[in-house]
Amino acid sequence: MAQSALEKAAKKLDYQIKIETQGAMGAENELTKAEIDEADVVILGVDVSIEGEERFEGKPVYETSVSSCVTEPEKVIQKALEKIKK
Fold this sequence. Notes:
Helices cover 43% and strands 16% of the residues. It is of the alpha+beta class and 86 residues long. A hairpin with a 2-residue loop joins strand 1 (21-23) and strand 2. Helix 1 crosses helix 4. It is globular and about 30 Å long. InterPro entries: Bacterial_PTS_Sugar_Transport, PTS_EIIB-like_sf, PTS_EIIB_2, PTS_EIIB_2/3, PTS_IIB_fruc. Residues 1-82 form the PTS EIIB type-2 domain.
């Protein structure tokens, strides 16, 4: 649900987004090093710790809850973008 909400919000706001999910079955749609390097900002919608968080070192990171990604995805994207405007 969070993935779908963020994808719809990004499309509405005219931003590109790539989403990796991690759960009981492991990582899905795992981000490549090139995708991470090209990213302007990283959004971590998490309620528990994730594996591989060190991959995002040097990138602006906005961390929020999964529920925020579901209920207010446009706000999540806008707040993440504020990280790169500073």
